[in-house]
Design brief:
alpha+beta, 132 residues, globular, 23% helix, eight-stranded mixed sheet
């Protein structure tokens, strides 16, 4: 079902500083930026091989990323896995009796379709299913 790692998301307080860190330290350039108002975040994607480092910063105090930063501080927020069909993967997770955040797939960044699996049923890791 999981075909590869799409991205590792890192929650940051200062997106510009995080972008500069990756550029200056690793020579890594941002390949995509997007504001996702429905999630209350702005993202910057840095390509690493066939995957991304997704730097996330909240655009509102009500966003889940703002709550994460307030409770846990900066760091890894979630792991995104590519799947052939987000709907089928999500159905399989639910059929296995596992908790989900999204009951149905929804639009994600880069024109993807996504759904989140709750970390309480996934050994403390928030998982994003990503269909390109």
């Amino acid at each position: 079902m999981l075909t590869e790692i799409d991205h590792v998301a890192i929650a940051v307080n200062d997106l510009e500083a995080a972008i500069a860190y990756y550029r200056e330290t690793f020579g890594a350039e941002t390949v995509h930026r997007e504001r996702i108002d429905s999630d209350g975040v702005e993202e910057a994607l840095i390509k690493v091989a066939d995957s991304y480092v997704q730097l996330l910063t909240p655009t509102s105090d009500a966003s889940p990323v703002a709550k994460f930063l307030a409770n846990k501080g900066e760091g890894i927020h979630h792991v995104g896995y590519r799947v052939a069909s987000c709907a089928q993967a999500l159905d399989a997770v639910k059929a296995g009796g596992h908790r989900v955040i999204d009951e149905a797939p929804r639009p994600g960044s880069r024109g993807t379709t996504v759904a989140f699996v709750h970390p309480k049923g996934a050994f403390g890791t928030l998982i994003e299913l990503v269909e390109e």
